Amino acid sequence: MKIAIISEELNFPIDEGFKKVVYEIVNVLKDEHKVIFIGKHSIDISGCLCKAIRTNKLFLNKSLFKTLSQFNPEVILYIPYSSITMASLLRAWILKIFLGKRIIILALQPRYYHIFSKYFIPFFRPDLLLVLSKKSEEYYQQLSFKVKKIPLGVNLNRFKPLDKEEKIQLRKKYGIPEDKKVVLHIGHLKKSRNIDSLVQTVKKKNVFLLLVTSTSTFADEELRKNLHNTNNIKIIDWYVEDIEEIYQLSDCYLFLVEDPIGCIEIPLSVLEAMACNLPVITTRFGGLSDWFREKDGLIFIDKKVDLSQILKNLTNIFPKTRPLVKPLSWNEVSKIIIKQINEKRRYIDEI
């Protein structure tokens, strides 16, 4: 199949969820299909034709239309950085009108519309909308979207558990105490990530909090300053190429985000931690509880739970979280995406 993938904000380093998703999807699809990737930034992906085209906010651009017309894709997969806003719907509609191609949108975060917007939505719906949670699927079905729920994936070859000795060596490498329970969180340094709750938890228990922050997004500088002055906390605010090592040296992954737009609906950091066979303590964020059940070291919590007690019992948790994500390699996720595209193609051809 000839597939055009469009996404605005993909550039190196690949250090946060949105960019990881786009990069991995392009990488796996180009191995089985003829793929062109179009974005705002110059980027080189081996085996894939990549074009940097700076468009306006409506995608009204001769170079964009010419490139897509010459490539002549069977389908256009649009992964908007702002997710499925009205502006994103309008951009996708313009591509469909001018190029006459099937348009698939992958929405990584929910977006909810006010009454005025809902009036116009029927005119701009894509051929298929891919979402990550049951809640999003039901919401867009109510708006008469053709919508399918899909999972995200993880690189199982890169993210894998290590033995105790290897873990100790990694702690020495990164200057992490060898004698403490290391609780990890990776993501944007923003209050929407519920960082305050993480800090309060550390203050109550004898654990070491390791925070790895994105270098691609603006951080809350006041929050950063306060954290640097707190004992038992280390912030890694530079790009870590071998990010799998940070998971591998840790004892537990903690994800307390509650804000629906605080992260993509299936946090890749949770999947990566599970692939490294860490115990994972998380809120029922986005689509996590749609794809996983609580067992084998995966613990779902709410506001009423005594988190400090759970951390105290870490030594009694014998995780088997890696098997839970084994069906979700990026290759398997790409097959799911292609299956949904093909089913939509057959449906359109039949009518």
Description of the molecule:
The protein is an alpha/beta fold. It folds into 2 domains: 174 residues, Glycogen Phosphorylase B (Rossmann fold), CATH 3.40.50.2000; 165 residues, Glycogen Phosphorylase B (Rossmann fold, 3-Layer(aba) Sandwich). The protein contains 14 helices and 13 strands. Strand 4, helix 3 and strand 5 form a beta-alpha-beta unit. Helix 1 crosses helix 14.
The major pleated sheet works out as: 7 strands, parallel
Main-sheet strand order equals 3-2-1-4-5-6-7
What order do the helices and strands follow?
A: EHEEHEHEHEHEHEHEHEHEHEHEHHH
What ranges have pLDDT less than 50 throughout 5 or more consecutive residues?
none
Distance between the termini: 21 Å
**Computed structural class:** alpha/beta
SS element count, helices: 14
Radius of gyration: 21 Å
> What CATH first level of the largest domain would be assigned?
Alpha Beta
Summarize the structure.
Helices cover 38% and strands 17% of the residues. By secondary structure, the protein is of the alpha/beta class.
